[in-house]
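W.,

You were right to be curious about this one. When I first looked at the sequence I had no strong expectations either way, so I just let the prediction run and decided to look at it fresh. Below is the sequence, 455 residues in total, followed by the output.
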Amino acid sequence: MSRLYWCEQAWLGGARVNSGVVLEVNGDRIRALTSGVLSPPAGSLRLSGLTIPALANAHSHAFHRALRGRTHNATGTFWTWRDLMYRTATSLDPDNYYRLARATFAEMALAGIGVVGEFHYLHHQPCGRPYANANEMGSAVVAAAQDAGIRLTLLDTVYLHGGIDPQTTDGYLPLGPEQVRFSDGDVGCWAGRVDELLAAVSSPTVRVGAAVHSVRAVDPTSIEAAAAWTRHHDAPLHVHASEQPAENQQCIALHGASPVEVILEAAGTGENVTLVHATHASDHDVALLAEAGAGCCLCPTTERDLADGVGPAETLANAGVGLCVGSDSHAVVDILEEARAVELDQRTSTLKRGVFDVVSLATMATSGGYRALGWEDGGTLAPGSLADFATVSLDSVRLAGTDAKNVLASVIYAATSADVTHLVVAGRPVVVDRTHTSVDVEAELSAAVSEVTAS
């Protein structure tokens, strides 16, 4: 089935914004693209404002959405916040997790997000016993994304240990009672379960990848096995790394190497690897990432909220490490904010402006994330690309008076998720005139969050 979309303005890559762009969509692909069309063709859907490739949320923990407003005013550190997060995790079952994830993914759709990478480690019952269907929780996430209308890369996560302790026999702590539902026991059992999940997923908008939670939760031998699984299945591998100084200190004490060194040595190659955060990565770590061809996902709003610090984004970019962004704990769901925060946080820490140009920020928010999640043919507006795109209105108070020569910069630096009016994923409208086509997002979020936090 073919559809026509007329874009008042569209960003086709580079610094230029084109006017009067007609996108001809056939199935889930852009078949043809024509610029300079002054008025909408008959039968086309008019997209007023700036149309861009759909935004990519490369790092998400959907259930953290229930924490919004409940943890941000607390004192303490990442480690004390983690205790509050664990309490929420214990309240989830396949049914309420589906409802919370569906509403959260629908909120992402309203924000112009066409694909999400869900870092999924809520595998089993709270007591650690598998459900009758060992992938029931993962299947709930898959169904939630499909029903919300966005693409999903389910990053099924290995989680085996409760932390690092060089004083123990193997250097690791046992799982705490709040962590047992995350673990399959060993990496072989994890791989067997994920093979079953992979075989059960048949949707063209869903892919299954892998994640290693961290060097705190997974030993090097198991990281090596998980990386081998991803190479065999041509799947992405994501890993939390160097989010906190304590993590670096513990890892060096046990392994004599940084988390980045341990991960890359165990992974064997970095071409399909994305490290999440890398906030406290050293210059040597960055050089290793670049040499390995690995990428990095930055999550500035979460890194701020958890007092993690400001990561070495400039050093990463200068070394040639590919960057993308994610909303992680969903303090806000706004990929435009994540992208501009990469630059603005660098300005705060380096005392200089223009570390990243606007095209680099827009690329992080779109094709950078699509690639990191295994959708290499998405995140651009071009013939043959996935038909995933979003439209940002230029009529709000935030963007009133936008200079025609600086439309992209105005959107990246001033627009918010509230300015997104339309989202098309796989050629199908998901958001039209700021309204989700199938989900009452506000009502479902309210109900889902209330259900989880009341339990």
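Here's what jumped out at me. The chain has two domains: 2-53+381-441, 55-372. And, maybe more interesting for your project: The chain has a mean pLDDT of 96.

Coffee later to discuss?

I.
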